[in-house]
């Protein structure tokens, strides 16, 4: 399909919104995630279900990514918006979309670094205004200059990539054979291991890891839906924490 | 010094400033410093009438600050309560404010990042990605609604508890072990659901087949692995990547390694 400049700009605008404060800090936990990014991009391009499916695939890669202390490993949001847009416009399948979105998300990290660096100047501006006694200016400085900066470094690159990217992708696809597409599928099937492993680094330990094996078994052998698996998970988690609790309070009484 | 009291709407206004703009001016030098001062602005204007006092109060809250914005809200609640006490004559020094803020922001960032980014969001995502993958458009919509309800509730109640109970609230969170029990139970659910995602999203199968002669073909995947443990390859792959993550290989580097490994094995026809 063709993308209009207006559609590309709208996707670029939502990418800006996903890093902005305008949907409260929960924007970071919603609009910023590739699942939602894919869904929104899909709506803008007229294919909401495809968009959500592509976003869901991309999101697994970034599942365990944590942004802490100013460090940012890749930009899941950029991968979500730009990756889904290129995939829908160029008619790519989900695993090929996953394979091309990762380099996009990695390159976009420079936008984050640029923002974090330039924002430092605004802190000094706030210092000077408070020194002069203009305490109300802190609200302005905390919001307006950094948001103008963020808009410039996010809206423009995302819009350009979505608008001009498809011709590059199409050029690439025209030289691709079935064998190369198979390679993309294998890459797309491997990348989710990273997102899941990053999350397991945080929550996996010798006590919880057996449940990981059980989860694979339930999905692959018994073909269970994630919903059913998570209900089983809630039951197990409640049982175990109740058992631990009662044994602890039992010791306390003795 | 007269009796300076905050009303509930002052505290809510202060919370909302933070809830909106916590990361608005995030920067390498002092991270969330301007956002902290921005959040304190309604409180300071209400408590202090003298311009010199207002200025001093804003200056002490423009110092380096960084925590997890949702759970870290409890620190702001405590700070608001302390400012109120100070305005009513209790001698609280700038160092005391700084000590509380810098002392609490690290531990709460640790707990907060684990809870919001490590447990709640991945579990909600895993479930909603699963719903989406059944061609159900409700997946992303449920995710958005659930995240807004969960995160707003935690942030608001953290802030209000901090304001009401002061440092006691923090001690309860840290030492009572309640939050650790929640994280532990959620980790069990999380690892199980991660396993479910592995099964669904890493559909790697060995492509090897051996011609045994006399028309019979032996496939490594269907004739051996599927009979032992069908999810063996995704399991081993994830565990190897986990080992590398734990060894300190950066995620960006691991992405490159996985793309390269996928390209080679895919081209050779192993998968």
From TrEMBL, chain A:
Membrane-spanning segments: 6-31, 52-74, 135-160, 180-197, 202-220, 226-243
InterPro entries documented for this protein: GatZ_KbaZ_carbometab (IPR050303), PTS_IIC_man (IPR004700)
Signal peptide location: none
One biological process term in Gene Ontology: phosphoenolpyruvate-dependent sugar phosphotransferase system
Main location group: membrane
Record keyword Oxidoreductase present: no
Entry membrane topology: Multi-pass membrane protein
Localization per record: Cell membrane
Keywords: Cell membrane, Membrane, Phosphotransferase system, Sugar transport, Transmembrane, Transmembrane helix, Transport
GO cellular component labels: plasma membrane
Protein name (record): PTS system, mannose-specific IIC component
From TrEMBL, chain B:
An example Gene Ontology biological process: phosphoenolpyruvate-dependent sugar phosphotransferase system
TM segment ranges: 137-161, 182-208, 228-245, 252-270
Entry protein name: PTS system, mannose-specific IID component
Membrane topology: Multi-pass membrane protein
Gene Ontology CC terms: plasma membrane
InterPro entries for this protein: GatZ_KbaZ_carbometab (IPR050303), PTS_IID_man (IPR004704)
Keywords from the named record: Cell membrane, Membrane, Phosphotransferase system, Sugar transport, Transmembrane, Transmembrane helix, Transport
Short name of one Pfam family: EIID-AGA
Protein location: Cell membrane
